[in-house]
Recover the amino acids of this structure.
């Protein structure tokens, strides 16, 4: 990375972390390379993390961990994100280079669904803002979800134009692929999917990949789909609520990241 690019990336990161501290209980967020990113601190590592609802366990990048004298074994970490503290979260220490090398700023790790148990995740786009709050009694309007292996799934259907498959699809804010299919009879000619639907939403001519190693459910729906909506994901009441994105002005004098 050039010195100019490094300086620009660092300045951008400082701005985002400052903005996150200024909004108690909330955080800036942004979508980059097709995944949801958020500033956070975990195990003393202060940086940018992928918020991945499709990952059962949080992870710390091995390179970042070595800079704070954490070895390559799993660690118990306090995670600070969106004005909240999640104490003693088990974090796997793994090399994330294959997943993160294309990002302009270093990715410190992955925040998984293990910090979202009993929480409501709200992501509002344009500009991107994230809120995490404890689940409370309230409206049950939305799509029902189920939790498998600690991660959320929604009922959906996919078609290649000839054959359709319906089942549980993982809600995956950490995936840059709009759709992923776990085996089955549906094909993805030219890495495209004719249609994907859930609830009353229909998406046509989507980029899609096959992931036969995904054993849970029929597939996954990635962040390029979820970022089309303001999203509310209640892990306790098991409800997914989606609203069309309605642009709102960002903080005065600032542009969203």
């Amino acid at each position: 990375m050039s010195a100019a690019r490094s300086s620009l990336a660092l300045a951008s990161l400082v701005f985002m972390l400052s903005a996150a501290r200024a909004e108690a209980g909330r955080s800036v967020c942004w979508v980059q390379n097709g995944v949801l990113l958020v500033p956070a601190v975990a195990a003393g590592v202060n940086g940018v993390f992928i918020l991945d609802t499709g990952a059962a366990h949080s992870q710390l990048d091995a390179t970042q961990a070595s800079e704070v004298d954490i070895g390559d074994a799993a660690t118990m970490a306090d995670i600070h994100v969106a004005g909240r503290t999640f104490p003693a979260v088990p974090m796997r220490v793994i090399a994330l280079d294959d997943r993160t090398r294309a990002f302009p700023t270093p990715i410190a790790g992955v925040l998984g669904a293990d910090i979202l148990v009993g929480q409501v995740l709200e992501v509002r786009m344009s500009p991107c803002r994230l809120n995490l709050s404890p689940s409370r009694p309230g409206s049950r309007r939305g799509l029902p979800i189920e939790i498998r292996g600690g991660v959320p799934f929604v009922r959906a259907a996919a078609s290649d134009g000839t054959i359709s498959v319906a089942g549980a699809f993982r809600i995956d804010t950490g995936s840059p692929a709009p759709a992923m299919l776990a085996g089955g009879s549906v094909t993805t000619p030219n890495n495209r999917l004719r249609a994907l639907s859930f609830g009353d939403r229909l998406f046509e001519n989507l980029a899609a990949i096959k992931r036969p190693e995904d054993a849970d459910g029929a597939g996954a729906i990635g962040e390029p789909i979820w970022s089309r909506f303001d999203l509310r994901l209640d892990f306790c009441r098991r409800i997914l609520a989606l609203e069309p994105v309605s642009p709102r002005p960002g903080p005065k004098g600032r542009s969203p990241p």
Remarks:
- The longest strand covers residues 84-94.
